[in-house]
């Protein structure tokens, strides 16, 4: 069973930075899209950033200019560089790998807590 292993979460003061990473526990076929989601207490999970196999990126408006998603195709690893963090960025962050046919899948990470204090 493939797991996505996340790391890099933690506690940081407002204005600080964190870098999240996510890699599969086993060798997998390359995903078409790598995504970062987050879920704050009492809120729905939201898509924060996406990067496609071709390198196209998309961000939710609230993180544009502050977060950068990148990927290492050789390692099937995705990163989320988070700068100028705000208290409203506090959430559990989840990575997701999606692949279309053939050999389609949707894999999720276990989540990593990011807490931004004033």
Give a written overview of the molecule.
The protein is an all-beta fold and 118 residues long. The protein has strands spanning 4-7, 10-13, 18-24, 33-39, 46-52, 57-59, 67-72, 77-82, 91-99, 105-108, 112-117. The strands form two sheets. Strands 2, 4, 5, 6, 9, 10 and 11 form a seven-stranded mixed β-sheet that branches. A hairpin with a 6-residue loop joins strand 4 and strand 5 (46-52). The termini are far apart. 30% of the residues are buried.
Tag the structure with descriptive keywords:
seven-stranded mixed β-sheet; 118 residues; mainly beta; 0% helix
Fraction of residues in H or I helices: under 10%
Helix-strand category: mainly beta
Largest sheet: 7 strands, mixed
Low-confidence stretches: none
Order of helices and strands: EEEEEEEEEEE
Quaternary assembly = single chain
How far from one another are the termini? 40 Å
Instruction: Count the beta strands.
Output: 11
Mean pLDDT: 96
Kindly provide the radius of gyration, computed on alpha-carbon positions and rounded to a whole number of angstroms: 14 Å
Shape: globular
Number of helices in the DSSP assignment:
0
Strand content: over 45%
Please outline the helices and strands.
Elements: E1 4-7, E2 10-13, E3 18-24, E4 33-39, E5 46-52, E6 57-59, E7 67-72, E8 77-82, E9 91-99, E10 105-108, E11 112-117
Parallel strand pairs: 2-11
Antiparallel strand pairs: 1-3, 3-8, 4-5, 4-9, 5-6, 7-8, 9-10, 9-11
